[in-house]
Amino acid sequence: MAFIEIDNVSFQYSDASNRAINQFSLTIEEGEFIVLAGPSGCGKTTLLKLLKKELTPVGILSGRIRYNDRPLEWLEEATSSQEIGYVFQNPENQIVMEDVLSELVFGMENMRVKPEEMRQRVAEMVHFFGLAHLLHCETHSLSGGQKQLLNLASVLLLKPKLLLLDEPTSQLDPVQAKEFLQFLKRLNEEFGLTIVLVEHRLEELYSLADRMVFLDEGSTQYTGNPKWVIQQIWKKRDDRFLAYLPSISQLFFYVQSKEVHFSEVPITVKESHKWLNQLPEIDVIRHVSPVANSKKEIILRCKQIHYKYRKEGPYVLKNLSLEVNEGDFLAVVGGNGSGKSTLLKCCANIIKPLKGTVFLKNNKIKTYKNETLEREMGYLPQNPLLCFMAETLEEELMNLAQRLNINDPRVRIEALTKQLGVHSILQKHIHDCSGGEQQKAALATILFTNPRLLLVDEPTKGMDPVSKQQFAGLLKELHEMGKTIMMVTHDIEFAANYATRCVMIFDGMITVDGSVGQVLKGNYFYTTAVNRVTRGSKVAEVLTLEEACTSWRIPVPF
Amino acid sequence: MNSTVHDQHPLINLLYYGCVGISVMVFLHPIFLTTAIILLVLTNLLHGNKEKVKKLSPAFIFMGFIVIVLNPLFVHRGVHILFYFRNNPITLEAIIYGVVMALMLVCILVLFLSFNAVINGRKFMFLFSKIWPQLGLLLMLTIRFVPLLLRRWREIYEVQRVRNYSMSQGSVKSRAKIGMLYMQKLLTWSLEEALQSAESMKARGYGLAKNRTSYQVFMMSAKDWGKVISLLVLTGIGIVGAKQEHGVLTIYPELGRVMLTYADWLYYGIFVILVSLPLILEGGEQLRWRLSK
């Protein structure tokens, strides 16, 4: 008997005009690991919430959901909150208590678990998650990854049979995200926990999941074995989902034009290595790279800057010097807490370095007035909502125009929003827009003053792959129009595809500086999946899929 | 911070602060109060509260100073007139009374500082869940919310300041307007996020059962009962003594002797033992550690 049966379910929010879920059916067996994916607003989260009775939104529901062979609505609330665990997207907002231990036991205390039993469960779980050293810490002092692990542990302490996760890794950096997913894999393999995961970043999930379900507009588009799904999407050249495919599988399809069984599609680096080694040699087309323009003007210069947040704390930035040339698209990469965002804030004059100076066009940045500074550079924070004091984009831009005495604001707004593709959301409340829209709207407020230098902090966090591509396209376009862009990112693939120059920060200093290729190709870990596959193989080493397409002479199928 | 206070039952922590609070309010004598302040500051340092003491002591001293200055300006009782200020007599009694009140105020503030450090969230929940469980949880959530709001405020401020949208320039009216906008932004944002917190609480079954259980169960040991009795006895003796005017400086209508009598010294001893109880316990622990090696 199936564990969960979703049969022909449709759901319509009470204030919406069309269905969020449209005739959706899915059977989940006990112990399965299922990944749900699809563009923002395709109904993934709604579907997940329908499975958790307490969170079911208000609206019209038709069809049947059965849990353990009984209708879900018959399930008692106490059973539902114990047996079905739910982990949310934002690590911070799920935490209600001040210290880690209280947070862990919060659910159990609600369920009136006896103190002795609580102690036993906590002791076990803390050991499994390795949270022992954090037990008495305050929750706000944890990193994002630790917070999310804490949330997971708190839910698992209720001994759930089904675990629902709504984009749990979207706010985490790649290393933490990987760690989190590994935990899920262990839970699934070692304890047979049934897991339904909604996620955007799928690269690692193809090898973890038993089954993938791709959703669009509330109904299933593809479902089945991950490799089979990959092949189907590629065969149909389905634009909606192409961006979701792992880059190594895409590389495979580019080179291998012959029809293969889906199980031969590589999804891990290991499988790709095996496949590449069987290939005949691939010739390389030598591109003569255009000679770099002689001496460019330096637009931003950090000279030996130091910074720390607390008096007793360690230096976050130590004697860091950096020059940004006019026309650069600079990606700043590095681990968590290496000082990337701090560097950007120093450059944006948000914080002042303790020692050292930041120069903007040969003048100290301190000497600029805010008004003039805003015409020179724009800072896009990690949270795009911070750019909005007004409720809609239009209002915000009008206020900005008034504040900075910009003539003809209407004309500029019109042109700018059309260019960025946010014309349609001008009058929408900013909190109602999707993540990608918010990010673009925030970019519009920055570009409104027409600055030459853009400072962008983690623009791709929590974005679905299609929005990411669109946003990247925008940045690229702006770069081609002559803007200088300095971007802090965790997303190596993103940096490799679009940036021209890359610096890596480690221990508060810049350790490597060079073109993207130079910096990333040397790395073992901090590089793209395609690079890891092609390094040390018979074919020429490449960094991105695009590079492979242009520089490899793909053999004619034999 | 590892110290013996955290090994005790929270009720004893609470009782200690109650008893010291009462004693400080009945023994209105500069010598008693000064001693108490010194001992309480030491207790704070012992519990690792140095940073806060350092940060807040100027404010405390300032508050005390204001009381000392204001009392003689408004109260003109007493017989020893020192001088006239705008045709009003300034009396020695009023000044001394101001000093005593100031010392008491500072004493209570330092006591609260220590209270805050010792009665942490979980102990607080434990104490309050017996009386009013919902209130206890609500208070915990609120306490967590305050630093969260501050952090968000700073984030908004940082970003908007470089966008030339700050409260530090322009007329009072425009500053107030911008301030209100900041507040509005902060609240909309926080409410949005708080909705998610509420969902997460609901998902983990909050509100299903009337009475929640508590992970941390504190047990009263025999030693703890001994501490309860000694705290109550010491305070009881103190109150009786203070009723008989021992350890209390007579100020109005005429200033009495500041020096302590023999009976006063006795009560002083009891008072010191009461206030320094955490220090004594900690010292005993240290001594046991030394001897056991």
How would you characterize the overall build of this protein?
- The complex is a heterodimer of chains A (558) and B (293).
- Chain A is α/β, with parallel strands linked by helices and 558 residues long.
- Chain A has 20 helices and 22 strands.
- In chain A, the strands form five sheets. Chain A has a six-stranded mixed beta sheet with strand order 6-7-8-3-9-10, sandwiched between helices.
- Chain A is globular and about 70 Å long.
- Chain B has helices spanning 10-26, 30-46, 50-74, 92-118, 121-131, 133-162, 172-203, 222-243, 262-275, 277-292; strands spanning 81-85, 88-91.
- In chain B, α5 packs across α6.
- At the A-B interface, α2, α3, α4, α5 and α12 of A face α5, α6 and α7 of B.
Characteristics of this structure?
heterodimer; A: 558 residues; alpha/beta; six-stranded mixed β-sheet; 22 strands; globular; B: mainly alpha; two-stranded antiparallel ribbon; 10 helices
Q: Strand order, biggest sheet of chain A?
A: 6-7-8-3-9-10
- What is the count of DSSP helices of chain B, taking H or I runs of 4+ residues? 10
Helix content of chain B: over 70%
Largest sheet of chain A: 6 strands, mixed
How many strand elements of chain B? 2
Sketch the major β-sheet of chain B: 2 strands, antiparallel
* Shape assignment of chain A: globular
> CA-to-CA gap between the ends of chain B?
22 Å
Fraction of residues in H or I helices of chain A: 25-40%
Give Rg of chain A in angstroms. Answer: 25 Å
The portion of residues forming beta strands of chain A comes to: 15-25%
Shape assignment of chain B: flat
Classify the oligomer.
heterodimer
Structural class of chain B: mainly alpha
Helix-strand topology string of chain B:
HHHEEHHHHHHH
The main sheet of chain B orders its strands as 1-2
Low-pLDDT residue intervals, each spanning 5 or more residues of chain B = none
